[in-house]
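Note to self: keep these together.
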Amino acid sequence: MSAYLDTRVSLFASRLWQAGDFEAVLAAPAEEMAPTLAVRGLPLLAAGFDHQDHRSLEQRIIAQVLDETRILIRPLSGALRRFLVYWTERFEVSNLKTLLRGKMTGERPASLLHRLTPMGTFGHLDMRDLAHAEDVGELLRRLEAGPYAGIVRQARQAFEESRDPFLLDAVLDRGYYEGLVQRARALDDRGGVSLRRLMGPLIDRINLVWLLRYRFNYRLPPARVYFLLVASSYGLPSSRLRELAALGSVEAVLEALPEPLRASLRGISDIPGVFARMEAEAAKLAGRVLHARAPAVCRAFAYLILRERDLRSVRAILRGRHLGLTQADIRAALYPPVERGA
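Structure:
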């Protein structure tokens, strides 16, 4: 199993883009865009390029991620397989949030279904049935009888207390990532240090960015902010997050971070900058895990993180071109290429 997966990941790693690939797509004439994407391993984005809109572009990117994940998990079973499959469930949770928001605004089922991302064999829910639920209450009750019962139950309780759509989304997100942490812990004896090198920066970034947004953009009180964060034992454990949530400014939070995180964010003073810097550092770590002698499942997870990152940059280029932005403006929005070495 490990030999097959290691070989497959090594082959897939050649699909990761270099700086020249992004420049080629950025500079390609419109009539050459489809072949430019296809030759670089993105036939799903190339097909229908001329008529895709914002929504279908996002769906095609997710379809690409799901297709490659499907191939990578073929030799896996048990907890290893469940971990990588669960990583795809972010997209189905996003579908759940779309359904819930649509029910709140009275959107018609046909319109709702059109906006959902097809999950293929990774889907766990009958979206057509759920889209025809009478209202939010009925939709939540149906979801509580399904595979997402745990996170939906917490979200329903929070929503019934506040009737706040934001809180409903936030609790669903928290529940998803706490599920990811639990599945990663189940692999401690197989993933070891490599899996913690991937999970730690991911969960720390989610928690710190959420903390800063909730506290200083949305002006939530410290106790509510802490409630919405992912329980963690990584670089920012829950005890430290509680202390940070009580501070009074972005600058105070960044100054109170433990090393080496504080050093890595030196010179950053805004929330988007925090996200970008932490995302870039996490991508570098993923690149090192991918090219190291790490457990095969960790290398596969690292590849999926980096592949999705590349695809998001391609999305930024295509959206920018459709909007008529200059090459310089589009280039500024791209994720920088990751160091591909060990």
